[in-house]
Design goal:
68 residues; mainly beta; 5 strands; 0% helix; 26% strand; globular
Length: 68
């Protein structure tokens, strides 16, 4: 699986948040799909329209990530 990268700092590690403010670590595939870092975790209830970079302050729509 190829992972999309942050357009600012070029790392693949992202997270998403739910309404309670909980975070879930994710990657975004080259097809634009948001997938959990741990395969056994669910993303139900998490906002998949905004991802946050773990390496810098960037956040936004997963479609704005870049290929490497």
């Amino acid at each position: 699986m190829k992972k999309m990268l942050c357009p600012q700092c070029k790392i693949a590690a992202m997270y998403v948040k739910n309404e309670a403010g909980e975070r879930r670590l994710v990657y975004v595939t080259s097809e634009g799909e948001v997938v959990p870092k741990k395969e056994d975790e669910s993303l139900e209830g998490f906002d998949l329209n905004e991802v946050f970079c773990l390496g810098c302050s960037w956040h936004g729509n997963p479609k704005r990530l870049v290929k490497y």
